[in-house]
Amino acid sequence: MGNLTLTDLVEVDLGKLGAAVADWKKAADSLKKLAGNADSGMYAKSERARWRGDNATVTRDFVRKTKKEFADAQAQAQTTYQLLEDAHSELVGIQKKVQTAVGTDAAHIGCRIEDIGGGAVRWFFPHVRGDTDERTQAQRDAAQALADRVAGLIGHASEIDASVARALGKSHGNDPHNFGHTNYDSLDAAQEERAAELARKSLTLYKEGKELSEEELKELRTILQYNADDQPFATKLYRDLGPEGALRFQAQISLDGTAEGGTQLQLARSIQDSMGVALATAQPKLGDEYTQELMKLGRSNLDLEMLGNRIEPKGYQVLGTLLRHGTYEKDFLDKVGNDMIAYEREMDGGAWSRPDGSYAGMKGFGLNADTTGGGGWDPLTGLLEAYGRNPDASTAFLQANVAGPGESMTNLDYLMGMGSDGKGEGARTWIPDATSPMTAGEDKVFGKDALGHALEAATTGMPFDHGPVSPHPEHTPERLAIMEKVVNSLAGDPKLMDDKMADSMGRMAGEYMPEINNTLRQSDSFGDLYGHPQKFDTMATVEFLDVLGRNPESYAEATLGAENYSATLMSEVVKHPDRFSGTPAVNLQHIAYGTGTVEGILGGARHDEIVTGGQLSDKDYNEQLQKRADMFNSVFGSTVGLATERVPVAGEIINGVTEMVVGEVVEGAERNTAAETADEAGKASFDARQNATEQALNGLSVAGMPAGANETDMRTNVDNQSEVGYDHGVDMHRDAKDFYQRNPPE
């Protein structure tokens, strides 16, 4: 069947399909009654009759066959009704979503969505008289996201259409003289049957050195894409394939796709994504026995049964590629994650096999079909991505002690590099995730990025890729303990922060601005201003911020987080003065002082890195600030300044604060972008002091003036306290560097 178009989906009268559903319901019910009558009437009488001779044989056989045909007719009618009812229900929902998208949502953005045939659409902004026709990148991104959503809905409708047609054909059997072919109790069942059929066919073909056709792969891709998050579908699919069949299928498809490239790789990538989502969806219903079998296979070499194949990855390596996609339950991750670590430690670095590079002309093939994240030979990358989407599981995992050779240590100590003695004893050696050892450099260690995601989830209580969240989760003792360990460890050994973890570390700092400000506060009298959160070690906190300030990504995240938190807290102090001890005027000055202190530390680190490192310029830092500002303004909501909603008072967050702060921070930084030389860039970075004072005044502008305050005096005092705080931060930064040089960690 050809693809549906936008016009088809918007204009089709689904009421006719609804009427057909009602008709088939009546037919199925009537046939059920007839089948029952045939069974209790004609058939029962025939079986009781005392016929003899040919009449007995011929008549009884005829009655039995007729009775079966009534039953088969009823079953086929019930199948037709069930398929059409499910299709009608889903298509009505899809049609409403499309109509809302092209009507309401498009009008809100100011664009139009146009049908260009074949299921494809395009967006455009119609010209309005007097309009300049200039659009921001955010507007274009929003329009593209809407078009992609509409195209996805059209694709889903086309898949339903094709699945129903295929299932009805199998039910009818193309035999006008005989009922009783394939029956289904739902559209899900028909779709799962076809997906499992294609996957099993693929497994069989690979034994012969063959593979599914491109059309078959596209069909499988489409079925999985739109049904992976349906639990009955996903559960039955994984049960039909079994643990070993599912892993072999995944490995075969990925190895083939990454070796072939092009369309084959795109299809393999989509199938892998959907199989991961399907496993996460099915896992709660698959049960512990299924999990235990996956764990057993995880420690074993997996025979891929591919003709001429010389690769036998461990089951966990294949499972790791699936874990990159979907949200897995804590119980499952607890078992699989700790067992994976235990096995790795038992094997003392020799757990995970990797091709030896002898496959001429196939340098890029791997188990992971994604564009990022390496070849999939290191399964912990996928495991840690899964933990990054389950905060509670990640918190428990990083604090767990797993048995292994040598002294006991937590998974956090093992993975991050502290080891059992704090100096790296027994810590994990991260393997480059590349096919050929010849290209296996440090830049191929993709697991550190995933570790950052897991740490981010564990400490913030939110998935690393979350959208807007309100209110933010509590900083529990368990989360605080991990954050404190990270702060102290990076302070003691800055090399523990891989550049790939920088963005996550910066966001963690942004989320923990209440604790950081509380640690660096002027006196205990300001404790309740930050909600009396836990205090970290002062020197370690300063050194931690120094580590972040030396990397443009973590600097950008931490800076935006600090300024965002400051502006929001100022707004709360002015609007709800009764919720804080002390006067609003004094509290506002202290907030400016505290944020200035943080900026002084970050600015000192940035300056040192530019001047002494000789590799970076102000431009590198400013580009990261702009990048994160663009991320905030995207349709996905704020991904910077996670401290926005951590103001320790009730009430809604002030609309517009974050957007204003992001824009002002970036604008201020751009003014200071210097020439390409490190010396000139270093001199310009001293203007960060001016930026800090400007940000304090911007926050005050959003907050407004406290009742009875003199505006001129208030602005002067906030400006002064921001400068004093900044200078204090610079001093603290210098003192901390001196302290750690004189007292290196033992």
Describe what you observe in this structure:
With 746 residues, this protein is mainly alpha-helical. It is 65% helix and 1% strand. It is built from 26 helices and 2 strands. The chain has a two-stranded antiparallel sheet with strand order 1-2. The longest helix is centred in the N-terminal third of the chain and has 57 residues, at 53-109. The relative contact order is 0.05. Residues 358-362, 633-657 and 671-678 have low confidence and may be disordered.
DSSP, total strands: 2
Task: Tell me, briefly, the overall form.
Answer: globular
- Tell me the quaternary state: single chain
How much helix is in the residues? 55-70%
Series of secondary-structure elements, N-terminal to C-terminal: HHHEEHHHHHHHHHHHHHHHHHHHHHHH
Beta-strand content estimate: under 5%
* Biggest beta sheet summary: 2 strands, antiparallel
What is the residue-averaged pLDDT?
Answer: 82
Unreliable stretches, pLDDT < 50, 5 or more residues?
358-362, 633-657, 671-678
Distance between the termini: 70 Å
Strand order of the largest sheet: 1-2
- Given helix and strand content, the structural type is mainly alpha
User: What is the tally of helical segments?
Assistant: 26
Radius of gyration, Cα only, in angstroms?
32 Å
Task: List its traits.
single chain; 2 strands; globular; mainly alpha; 746 residues
Condensed summary:
The protein is mainly α and 746 residues long.
Chain-wise SSE layout:
Elements: H1 6-11, H2 14-48, H3 53-109, E1 112-117, E2 120-124, H4 137-172, H5 187-207, H6 214-227, H7 231-260, H8 262-286, H9 288-298, H10 315-323, H11 330-346, H12 379-388, H13 391-399, H14 411-416, H15 447-460, H16 477-492, H17 502-511, H18 513-520, H19 538-549, H20 552-575, H21 584-613, H22 618-632, H23 657-671, H24 678-685, H25 688-703, H26 711-742
Helix pairs in contact: 2-3, 3-4, 4-6, 5-6, 5-7, 6-8, 7-8, 7-10, 9-10, 9-11, 10-12, 11-12, 11-13, 12-15, 13-15, 15-16, 15-17, 16-19, 17-20, 19-21, 19-26, 20-21, 20-22, 20-23, 20-25, 21-24, 21-25, 21-26, 22-23, 23-25, 25-26
